[in-house]
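Feature request disguised as a bug report, sorry. It would help if multi-protein outputs had a clear separator. Right now it looks like this:
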Amino acid sequence: MRGGPVRFLDNTSADSGSSTQLLAIADVAKILKISVSGVRRLLAKRQIAFLKVGGSIRIHREDVTAYLARRRVEAVDQ
């Protein structure tokens, strides 16, 4: 499935229609504004959680957001 994010249905509540967005490595690279190889390095270091679906790697959008939150450096008040 190329060409953009994949919607993954959440089986916990079939009636609610909730879903989680799964991203390909190239999608994450665009979001983080880094190279595809940079994303692969982050995945290899296990800094961003991911799923292996068949031979493909998919990343939950929430895991990208969590990674960014962990990397945030707070401002220092002077």
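(second protein starts here, but nothing in the output says so)
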Amino acid sequence: MCTAVCPKITKMDKAKIQAVTTAIFLETRKSRKDGLCPVKLRVTYKRKRCYYNMRDETGETILLSKTDYAKVMKENPKEAYKNLSIH
């Protein structure tokens, strides 16, 4: 690495580069005929992404409509959506 052009990479910078990030999202590209879409978890590590289906207690894939997903992911979901909370 050229130190004249590039600053030295500190240990903190290396930790940021190798950090794992996660995100929960609604996979709208694979919606079913009834309008429900699977909820997925995206894990990114070293710029490589892996996707996992979110499942409930019975092992079934969690399927939500776009409006239900928006209601569930609110900071304070209403009573009907609290049991579905996936934060």
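Even a blank line would do. Unrelated, but nice: The chain is about 20% helix and 30% strand.
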